[in-house]
């Protein structure tokens, strides 16, 4: 992956601030919690990127069944097959 990941600081900070207020975080916890929030965001982001990459490889085949044509059970089975985490 050669693309850089850039996060809109204003949107990220606003979302974190909303979460901090909603959860009643104390001032002395903010830096630690912001780091956890960022780590969670990036973890989810890169997991989704990996998933999308695998999906493009597997569902791009001519004989592959398309996502929208799968039943829920088929989709769950497909996710199980592709889950490497």
What's the quick description here?
By secondary structure, the chain is mainly alpha-helical.
Morphology call: elongated
Order of helices and strands: HHH
Low-confidence segments: none
Structural class: mainly alpha
Beta-strand content: under 5%
Helix content: 55-70%
* Quaternary status: single chain
* E-strand count: 0
Helix count from the secondary structure assignment? 3
Largest sheet: none
- Rg over CA atoms, rounded to whole Å, is 18 Å
User: How far apart, in Å, are the first and last alpha carbons?
Assistant: 19 Å
Average of the residue pLDDT scores: 85
Walk me through the structure.
The longest helix is centred in the middle third of the chain and has 30 residues. By secondary structure, the protein is an all-alpha fold. It is built from 3 helices and no strands.
How are the elements arranged and paired?
Elements: H1 9-23, H2 30-59, H3 72-82
């Amino acid at each position: 992956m050669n693309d850089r990941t850039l996060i809109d600081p204003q949107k990220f900070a606003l979302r974190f601030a909303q979460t901090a207020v909603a959860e009643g975080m104390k001032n002395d916890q903010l830096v630690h919690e912001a780091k956890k929030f960022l780590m969670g965001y990036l973890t989810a982001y890169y997991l989704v990127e990996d998933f999308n990459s695998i999906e493009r490889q597997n569902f791009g085949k001519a004989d592959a069944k398309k996502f929208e044509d799968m039943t829920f059970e088929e989709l769950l089975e497909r996710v199980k097959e592709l889950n490497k985490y």
